[in-house]
Amino acid sequence: MRISVAALIASASGAAMAQTVVPGPMEATHDAALARVADQYEIQLENFTRVPLGWGLEAFVADSAHRAAIDAFFASGQRDFRAQSGMHPYVVLDGGYEEFGDLGMFGGVEAAGNAFRYAVLRDSGAAAADVAAARAVLLRTMDGLHWYTQITGVPGLVARGLRRIRGSAGEPPLPGSIPMLTPLRDAAGNPLPTRKTATWRADNSGALPDLIWIDDTSKDQLDGYIFALGAAYDVSARDPTIPAAAVQRLVSDARAIGARLMEPAEVAPGRSIDLVLRDADGRLTTFHDLSAEEIAPGVLFREATNGFNAIMSLGIIRTLFHITGDATLGRFYYGDLVQRRRYLDSVEQTVGSVYVGRQTNYSNVNMAFVAIYGLLRYESDPGIGLRVRMILERSLYAPGIDRDADDAGQSFFDFLYAAFRLGGTTNNGADARDDGIRTLRDFPRPPYWNRDVTNCDTAEIMSRACTAADGTVLTLSPDPGRGGVLVTVDPVPMRLRPPSNFEWRDEPHRVNGGGGSRLNPGGDFHSAYWMGRFLRAGVDGFANVSPIARPAVVVPADPDAGVSPDVGSVDARGDSGPTGARAGCACRAPGEPRQGGGGLALALVAVARLAHRGRRRTLAVLRRVNR
Q1: Pick from 137, 319, 152: which is nearest to 229 by CA?
Q2: pLDDT tens, position by position, 372-399
Q3: Which of 215, 244, 295, 322 could form a Cys-Cys staple with 299, CB 3.0–4.6 A?
Q4: 3 state DSSP class of 41
Q5: What is the 8-class DSSP label of residue 354?
Q6: How far is residue 177's CA from residue 199's CA, in Å, rounded to a whole number?
Q7: Tell me: the pLDDT tens digits for 197-248?
Q8: In sequence order, what are the beta bridge partners of 212?
Q9: Which runs of consecutive H residues, i.e. helices, occur in 332-410?
């Protein structure tokens, strides 16, 4: 098997296949109407939501006349809002911009879409003007990705989010009020604020006076940011039209981030581990844990147990190695994480615990899919590549349990599965691809307002029998979903779902919701569509391994495999660590209340007690404890 898989990988570096997961203009099954919707989303992003930073925000429009102006712009067929309306977007977006605290994930997924779109247009013979415009978008995105770590003032440390406080010369003031800034330390050198929380800071680099940043980043934000960093490098590294300095800047940032992640830190008294997130004030971030040994912040085991953390750390480190080629990072990934600490074993045994029926947190599911892209796209070792594809199919996409990604109607998951599974876009892969395209066809057309959607009224909810406006019968679940929301038994078709600022981490069974003045960015549609256009269709997923994937690092066998270094004393009772600690997503913007529940963390504690007792029993305990 190793020989045949290696041959498949070798063949992937040849000429591009004509077919892609989402068919392009030269393919018989190309959907021209869907391509026009993708273009409309690009117009929305470029004219409104990515204006301040080059990637990833949502916008609010309070004034009805300004909303009407945006509607008129899209109806006009023009591409430049300023030219068509005579107004700068900062004027009409009078409610300001938001989602700064989720810029790494929400914006990172969109930013990766910018890279995919540029590569597709460049490589498919698109008009030179369109390629040049897409290149300009990518270059601005790469600037923003660099600012994301530069602004912290400490190499290798990343922000949680960025915010522009001053526009360019001749631009009107930015909408929205500027938050109060807090220095990193007080006069005595003590970090501020005393209680660690996400805090707005002034530029700490001395080079970005027009930007401020929010700290206390979390693993979900790093996950999305590294996804974008890898995609940008992957499409630009051998492109002579991309300035070498812009590419090298990404490489330097990735090398510094990797070096920081390899440094052990004390996460609890007498307990240290690597793969932790730090801040410029000298402290660990609240949700700093990326190691598979750290079950929740401050709860550390000797062996890799947390497969959710493991898939993220493996994806992140392999992406950073892909970008840098750094030998130390390569040895850390192959020798330490894969071989000695057996992170893939942990993923195989427990990553399926992200699915807990109606209580499934799709933010966790999204984080796992974003992370596994780095392993599927950049891993050049055929044995590891095969294992990762089995994880994708058996544990992540289609484990055969309630609420899993299969048939959830989430295009990003569908396309990634269809592109990288062993059988590619044949059989189940074809079904997934078709599901993903159907979901994109049903997406709202730009401008993507956060309209109010009420599929089921009070009487229908009480009777558990609901008919949507288009006549679709929705079977309501007798029990609420996560957070007590009303959900259906089967996923709601995309055409009926309430709007979302980031669909792939939202509940696909939600029934009612929306409302307000938000202009949803559409980065979710943008990234899924262009990823589908970027990745090849065919009979095997190894064709989508990057043609510039770094060779695997060969390390000698380690007799101590399975035991992690530098963890100090280990508390395996599961009764230590902060109350309510979570091993899942820390998706919380400043001022948003913390979400309760340490279910996944407690479940992983139970798994540790059952280590080596079998995958089936392990997963059963995880799902039972995490309800």
Answers
A1: 319
A2: 999 999 999 999 999 999 999 999 999 9
A3: 295
A4: helix
A5: G
A6: 16
A7: 999 999 999 999 999 999 999 999 999 999 999 999 999 999 999 999 999 9
A8: 163, 202
A9: 343-350, 362-378, 382-391
